[in-house]
Amino acid sequence: MDELKQRLHKELQQSLDNKVLSDLSWALTAQKVRVSYKTVTKTKMDVLMKMMLITLQQLSIEHPEELAQVLGVELLFVEDLLSIMKGAGLIVNKDVWSVTELGVSQLTTGMLLHESEVEETVLIVSPLHNEFLDVQNSQPLQESQDRFRYEEDPSNWSTNNLPTDLVRTHLSAFVEQENTSERQRVVEQVLKVEKVEQIPIPCFEFHVHNTTQDTLFARIWNSYTEQWDETLEQMVMTKERSSWRNRYINKKEEKVHET
Q1: Where is the domain boundary, 55, 81, 109?
Q2: Which residue of 102, 133, 150, 165 is most buried, as measured by CB atoms within 10 A?
Q3: Are residues 98 and 167 located together in one domain of the fold?
Q4: Do 174 and 207 belong to one domain?
Q5: Burial 146-179 (b: 16+ CB within 10 A, else e)
Q6: Is residue 114 pLDDT above 90, yes or no?
Q7: Integer angstrom CA distances of residue 162 from 22, 126, 133
Q8: pLDDT in tens, 128-154
Q9: Which domain of life is it from (predicted)?
Q10: Are residues 18 and 136 in contact, defined by beta-carbon separation less than 8 angstroms?
Q11: Structurally, how many domains does the chain consist of?
Q12: Do 164 and 207 fall into the same domain?
């Protein structure tokens, strides 16, 4: 971690205009949560299934053998698809086979809606950012690091503070990234969100003076995302930057005059 801090310090001063005035190390607290949710999968209807649905709409079919004979396919295939479509609510058998409204709807779209499935995953959320962290490479916390001075007591955080819409949006983006024209999986419902543990994220804070423009600013490296964190930087600058000129610049000038 010390090597990383030195590398960042050097990087910031690569520009001759920048001078690092101060640096701090502290830990931001993220929360690990376990989420259970329900997904539903749609797959492209195969040709035989479409033909069977169309045939059942047009003819009075009592037995699978009749349907197999009309379509000229093996009885085994017909029986298998009839079972699948009946289980999915696309057809019913009351003396004769008939297509339900759901069956008509899915035939129109050409997509078969499968039964819902319950899934579970673990996510990392940063309460201060109000967003999820995708990269899971957290560095171990050093004992000497204090908690970030502007975060509330992490022990008071509850999953009730986590909007369900935010969870669902994040899950949907994750689940749907593998969707294709042949297969689509979507998040139907978020069932439960449980708090698992706190995760300390080491951060490095630098106060920098651009001597050419005479501006002061903060740079904060988030070791979890492995990039500069603009959200934390803006928070620190909003609360503190007005005092930095007196702390870093004016005091030094006073000492020079005294000498």
Answers
A1: 109
A2: 133
A3: no
A4: yes
A5: eebeebeebeebebeebeeeebbebbbeebeeee
A6: no
A7: 35, 10, 14
A8: 999 998 755 545 555 557 899 999 999
A9: Bacteria
A10: no
A11: 2
A12: yes
Residues 124 and 172 in one domain: yes
Q: Is residue 209 within 8 Å of residue 15, measured between CB atoms?
A: no
Question: Distances from the Cα of 41 to the Cαs of 113, 178, 179, 195, in angstroms?
Answer: 6, 12, 10, 28
**Predicted pLDDT of residue 257:** 41
The residue out of 67, 87, 109 marking a domain boundary is 109
Confidence of residue 178 (pLDDT cuts 50, 70, 90): confident
**Cα separation, 28 vs 81, whole angstroms:** 54
147 shares its domain with 180:
yes
pLDDT tens-digit readout, 82-96: 999 998 899 999 989
The answer on pLDDT for 259 being more than 50 is no
Do 248 and 214 share a structural domain? yes
- What pTM does this model have? 0.76
Q: Residues 20, 206: contact at Cβ < 8 Å?
A: yes
> What's 53's domain CATH number?
1.10.10.10
30 with 151, same domain?
A: yes
Closest to 201 (Cα-Cα) out of 166, 234, 237, 229: 229
Q: Give CA–CA dist 192/167, Å, rounded.
A: 10
Q: At what angle do helices 75-87 and 47-58 cross, to 10 degrees?
A: 80
Domain that holds residue 229: 2-38+117-258
For residue range 230-240, list pLDDT tens digits in order.
999 999 999 99
- 142 CB-side CA count, 13 A: 11
Give the amino acid at 206: F
**Which pLDDT band holds residue 253 (cuts at 50, 70, 90)?**
low
Cα gap 196→224, rounded to integer Å: 18
